[in-house]
Amino acid sequence: MVRILPKTKAAAVNPLKSSQPLGAALAFLGIEGAIPLFHGSQGCTSFALVLFVRHFKEAIPLQTTAMDEVATILGGADHLEEAIVNLKGRTNPKLIGVCTTALAETRGEDFAADIANIRIKRAEELAGTEVVLANTPDFGGAIEEGWAKAVTSLIGSITRRGELPRQSNKIAILPGWNLTVADLEHLRETVESFELEPVIVPDVSGSLDGTVPDRWVATTYGGAKVDDIRELGTAVQCIAIGEHMRCPAELLHMLTDVPYALFQSLTGLKDADRFISLLSAISGKPVPAGVRRRRAQLQDALLDGHFHFGDKKIAIAAEPDQLYQLATFFVGMGCEIAAAVTTTDMSEVLEKVPADQVQIGDLGDLEALGAGADLLVTHSHGRQAAQRLGIPLMRVGFPVFDRLGSQHKLTVLYQGTRDLIFEVANIFQAKRHAPTPETLDPFRHREMPDELSSSPLARV
Asked: What distance lies between CA 195 and its chain's CA centroid?
């Protein structure tokens, strides 16, 4: 059984995790016409904004209540009200997602009551705009928890309650934060190939997919629609991807009685088969020929690639669900997890990670534990550790800012698993040195005894 090792340092050395409010903001960015609003100081928002822009290479509509010293002491309700009303007046968003930060949370304010009072007091001015609160202090959790809290708040605040008439072809998909734009697009195409209608919440593939709008938009210009979130209760099935999405899926079930299925990963043949089988059962249709062909391609990739993976040692640092996704993939290919480092111990999925131990820590821990590994797997902040150790780095997660196209990398279902196999195998092949005559024949330049070197045969 895997051992979960707690943090051993008072300070982070080359931090691994990103904060809860950043994860909540990322979820709100997956809603059409939305603006995430950080309730805290300008510095908190600026830091998150820099990370978002470097990762996505896009304009990010992230705003702040800009609490100052007075608001920190006396309370920030007035700043929150002013920010919400100003955003409504200037940009008319369909949704304002309020993400609390450590500055406001430490003071212990009742944010839910503040927002309820603002809604009543400014009802006429805020008509047509949803205001959703996610309690996400920086000092607890990480990006994974922030994302899950935001999705839970969206469902709790917007979705209609009660058992509603079901649409037999409609399914709700609650993706984990670690699914890329390409993953979500591929999921949608796969679900639609069964003649089903997917409603993905949140859907960053519509808002952060690298397209250029034909006009300036002050809010997100794509993603899940607020009206679709309101009608999630009409879905015949909910599919949650990642252990951290269990809570919003359970809330949806409690409010609307929509059943849910949880997939802790969609990477690998076994998990992809389970997902495809569920779609076939819901739709009552056979698996399309195109999906079967992609499965056959994955089988061939497994045969071609497993020679390069056998007995390789992998060191991974990632959020809990992404750590589980990647670790199970590598172990399934014949690798050994030499080091597993994650951000928090709040996820039950850590007990299923196929490693001897999981360290709650930072990239300094990854560097210490990963010495001697064949591959480091983490985000771009791990590049210095990889350079010092002389180990190749596979960039995953958030942020990835020193490579282009990270959001268009496919990692799920048959095609995504196939692409992962090729990517990793090519890294291993690039690291391998070509054989030389000296390595093939270690006796090529051996010294001969004098009596043999003087013989006629030696001179031939």
From this structure: 27
**Same fold flag, 18-140 and 167-295:** yes
Q: Could you tell me the pLDDT band of residue 236, with boundaries at 50, 70 and 90?
A: very high
| Angstrom distance (rounded) from CA 456 to CA 460 | 7
> How is domain 306-431 classified at the architecture level of CATH?
3-Layer(aba) Sandwich (3.40)
Q: Kindly tell me if the per-residue pLDDT of 360 is higher than 50.
A: yes
Domain assignments of the chain as residue spans, ordered by start: 18-140, 167-295, 306-431
C-alpha distances in angstroms, 308 versus 136, 196, 411, 414, 435?
42, 38, 19, 19, 16
Q: Which amino acid is at 396?
A: V
Rounded to whole angstroms, how far apart are CA atoms 63 and 301?
A: 45
Please give the CATH topology (third level) of the domain spanning 18-140.
Rossmann fold (3.40.50)
The two tokens of residue 359 are 């360290």
Is the C-alpha dihedral spanning 366, 427, 175, 26 positive or negative?
positive
167-295 has which fold?
A: Rossmann fold (3.40.50)
How far is 173 from 229, CA to CA, in rounded Å? 11
